[in-house]
Design a protein that fits this description.
six-stranded mixed beta sheet, 9 helices, Alpha-Beta Plaits, D-Maltodextrin-Binding Protein, domain 2, single chain, elongated, alpha/beta, five-stranded mixed beta sheet
């Protein structure tokens, strides 16, 4: 299976894609919009996208892309994020004066960087991309913060492992497929116990309470809610929710209850909860 990811090979998205579909062929894309374009065009069979980090929060752009493309979430997984200080082979940790990585990764390694004040953090477009750059330039005084897979993929060396501030650092990833797929992956798993939905409401008092009460009345357990602005309609919002359901049938019942209170209801996917 060809799985599109945002970022370079060796990234955490690469690692998550292989966890979701072992042996998958990775299709790297520079931008998240290109990931969804690859799905639309058939250049990729599926996409692995980060949707939420336990420390940094939601990846808001991906909620918008899920809404505006004809796709379905078919699976989720949790990936433990382990950051490592990586350099070209032969580099010495005491000689490193610059550290490149994505801004979020740098922020998650503040303690390590504070303990090494000679290392200047420099934001880069991608964690794995920072390792790729190091290997191409052979800069012995620079390092990167990225995954172990990035070091292996680009033939670099890990100088320090597990340098993140918080060990409870996880990212939740979705496996997304086009709705027009004909194979079994596009079908709703009868054992699904989780559902993601987007909906809009009338701009009047009590509308959100009424919609959530309708969900609650079906026995649905809300686990996450996120709001995003509606383009062209200031101060109006699209709400995204994740909820636990007893079965796929219960999911259909919850959608029906929600539709009685909402202008638009779009099911983003029904799938099994990751542990």
């Amino acid at each position: 299976m060809r799985i599109a990811i945002q970022g370079e090979p060796g990234s955490f998205s690469h690692e998550a894609a292989l966890k979701l579909v072992p042996g998958a062929e990775i299709v790297p894309c520079a931008l998240s919009a290109e990931v969804f374009a690859a799905l639309d065009s058939g250049a990729a069979d599926a996409a692995a996208i980060p949707i939420e980090n336990s420390l940094a929060g939601s990846v808001l752009e991906h909620f918008d892309l899920l809404l505006h493309h004809d796709v379905r979430v078919v699976r989720e997984t949790l990936l433990r994020i382990r950051h490592n200080l990586i350099a070209v082979k032969g580099a010495k940790i005491g000689e490193i004066d610059r550290v490149y990585s994505h801004a979020v990764a740098l922020a998650q390694c503040r303690r390590f960087l504070a303990e090494h004040p000679s290392m200047k953090p420099i934001a880069f477009y991608d964690t794995a991309g920072s390792v790729k750059q190091l290997v191409s330039t052979r800069d012995m005084q620079a390092a990167a913060i990225a995954s172990e897979q990035a070091a292996v993929y680009y033939g670099a060396e890990i100088l320090a492992r597990g340098i993140e501030d918080d060990e409870e650092n996880y990212t939740r990833f979705f496996l997304v497929r086009s709705k027009n797929e004909n194979d079994s992956e596009a079908e709703v798993d009868p054992a699904s116990n989780k559902m993601s939905v987007a909906f809009t409401l009338e701009h009047k008092p009590g509308s959100l309470v009424a919609a959530l009460s309708a969900l609650s009345a079906t026995g649905t357990n809300l686990t996450k809610i996120e709001s995003r602005p509606v383009k062209g309609k200031p101060w109006e919002y699209i709400f995204y929710v994740d909820c636990k359901i007893g079965s796929s049938v219960d999911g259909a019942r919850a959608l029906k209850a929600l539709s009685e209170h909402c202008g638009i209801v779009k099911e983003l996917g029904r799938y099994s909860e990751a542990h």
